[in-house]
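Budget justification aside, the reviewers requested a transparent look at the raw inputs and outputs of the sequence design task funded under Objective 1. We therefore reproduce one unedited record. The lines immediately below are the structure tokens for a 317-residue chain.
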């Protein structure tokens, strides 16, 4: 298993702030996004690496864990360690990971299992889950008073990460619990923190099977910012469209649509596309809005003729 330098992948310093990491991720993700590089396998692989790095570095807990792993690996490397001989198993066990006899769970992306887009690297799976044989966190059913609740069955939790597109369309994951597989559907409209209950899938050794709760985390998307059920995006238009008006294509999660730009549109102006946001979790036939912020691309240089025309316009105003 190869070590992954996530800071290098995003081109940021190890002391980079959360905002610096977010900015670097958005820039690279836009550059290598599959929609901008159709059929380009190298760009697709790079996009996966960028998403994996952001998944770790944008999460304070994962980042702290990664920094601990990196420090131990760097110390070993500086001590003369040879590539390929580092004992990942020792580090894996030493970091509080599951050992023999405990329930193991793997959460697989169905596309990954059947060969399409693929998922995270072995390095990520080993230390951060997403198919790496993580142990469930366990809830013993305590009441608010701190006493153990009577007849309260144990429940188990597992975090899963899905894309914004999957949150829009719904998703599927294959659970592998000690070798037993079960497909789980993630409904459209889920948010980060949404719990998806999978009833009676964890065998307690003779007792009633316990429930599993999948804790959803929706990954950031370079194209959109999500606020509840609304989405925000930006569209850059040229000066002439801003002045004279016209139709421009805007990307949505359900495809491209035409947005009519009225004459005299100002930089920073917001346009609302009703029903083009996220589906409402409890109202599947209803959707939030897509808010489009307009940026105007001003020409950096003007020809003599253009300058003359603009001077004429200024004189007429």
């Amino acid at each position: 298993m190869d070590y992954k330098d996530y800071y290098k992948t995003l081109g940021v310093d190890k002391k980079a702030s959360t905002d610096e990491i977010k900015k670097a991720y958005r820039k690279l993700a836009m550059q290598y996004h599959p929609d901008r590089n159709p059929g380009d396998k190298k760009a697709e692989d790079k996009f996966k690496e960028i998403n994996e790095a952001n998944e770790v570095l944008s999460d304070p807990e994962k980042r702290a864990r990664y920094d601990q792993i990196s420090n131990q690996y760097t110390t070993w490397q500086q001590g003369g360690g040879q590539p390929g001989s580092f004992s990942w198993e020792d580090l894996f066990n030493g970091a509080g990971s599951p050992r023999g006899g405990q329930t193991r769970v793997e959460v697989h992306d169905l596309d990954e299992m059947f060969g399409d887009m693929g998922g995270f690297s072995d390095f990520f799976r080993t230390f951060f889950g997403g198919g790496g044989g993580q142990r469930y966190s366990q809830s013993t059913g305590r009441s608010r008073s701190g006493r153990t609740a009577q007849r309260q069955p144990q429940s188990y939790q597992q975090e899963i990460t899905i894309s914004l597109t999957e949150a829009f369309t719904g998703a599927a994951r294959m659970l592998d619990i000690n070798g037993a597989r079960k497909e789980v559907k993630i409904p459209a409209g889920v948010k980060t923190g949404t719990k998806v209950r999978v009833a009676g899938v964890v065998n307690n050794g003779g007792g009633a099977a316990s429930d599993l709760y999948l804790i959803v985390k929706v990954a950031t998307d370079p194209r959109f910012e999500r606020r509840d059920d609304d989405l925000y995006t930006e569209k850059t238009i040229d000066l002439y469209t801003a002045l004279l008006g016209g139709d421009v294509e805007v990307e949505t999660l359900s495809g491209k649509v035409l947005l009519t730009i009225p004459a005299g549109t100002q930089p920073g102006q917001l346009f609302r596309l009703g029903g083009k946001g996220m589906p409402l979790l409890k109202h599947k036939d209803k959707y939030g809005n897509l808010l489009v912020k307009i940026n105007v691309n001003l020409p950096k240089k003007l020809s003599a003729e253009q300058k003359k025309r603009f001077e004429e316009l200024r004189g007429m105003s």
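The first strand starts at residue 104 and ends at 109. Residues 92-103, 110-118, 130-152 have pLDDT under 50 and may be disordered. Computational costs for records of this kind are itemized in the attached budget.
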